[in-house]
Amino acid sequence: MNIKVLGFLAAILSVGRQSSCDCPINHPQTSICVSQVAIRCIITSPKLTSPERDLWGNLVYFKVRQLVIIKGVNLIQEVQEVYTGSRLSCGYNPGDYFQNREFLLFGKVHNKNSIFLYRCSFLKLWKELTWFQQTSIMGNYQSGCNCEISLCMKGMCFNRTVPHECQFTDDVVPWTGPGKDPYFRPQYEGMVCRRQSNGSCGWDSRITPVRSFEWR
């Protein structure tokens, strides 16, 4: 096999890896409901290389100072490190820019004092979350974990009526409310999906006094 053919195959594999690292659009409620651990923390170190490996290379990690553990207090006492995969395995690299800044992140338990973060795990600067999101993280979202949020693509789900689902339509229905900001995403930024009085699931923009029993 000549060099040109090898180069062509390498390019195809590279594109394939890049495509496989693309993330679906998840509502914050979906992310916290499927995660083992949710914390508010400050990243205190640059990216470090771990001796642990996955199929594609060494894992990387960064140190954090935990501020609040929102979910997973029965699984881990204090998160001190956050691990992620190598670049080739779609690991998450927050970059030096994010050091000493406060984050909300969701992951799974890695070992006694660390969690694992995937490329598509939820990780957001705390100050960039809306007030509704910051408040709902403390319990509102988890109160709706018995409902399912289904992503609606190009209007394909508008004819579906499933009692336990909320249709996530932010990217297919333009916002026409106050301000008419084309980038405003009302369901993502200001709604929770939960059981209604008739037993079905529906979008709700109210903040109710529900606080996670796991919060510490």
TrEMBL record:
Upper classification of the organism: Eukaryota, Metazoa, Chordata, Craniata, Vertebrata
Subcellular localization(s) per the UniProt record: Secreted
GO cellular component terms attached to this protein's record: extracellular matrix; extracellular space
UniProt keyword annotation of Coiled coil present: no
Gene3D superfamilies to which the protein is assigned, alphabetical: 2.40.50.120, Tissue inhibitor of metalloproteinase-1. Chain B, domain 1
Listed name of the protein: Metalloproteinase inhibitor 4-like protein
Signal sequence range: 1-21
Keyword line: Disulfide bond, Metal-binding, Metalloenzyme inhibitor, Metalloprotease inhibitor, Protease inhibitor, Secreted, Signal, Zinc
Domain NTR as annotated: residue spans: 21-145
Record-level GO BP terms: negative regulation of membrane protein ectodomain proteolysis
InterPro entries recorded: Netrin_domain, TIMP, TIMP-like_OB-fold, TIMP_C
Pfam family, one: TIMP
SMART domains: NTR (SM00206)
Disulfide bridge positions per record: 21-90, 23-120, 33-145, 147-201, 152-157, 166-193
Family affiliation: Belongs to the protease inhibitor I35 (TIMP) family.
Biological source species: Callorhinchus milii (Ghost shark)
Main location: secreted
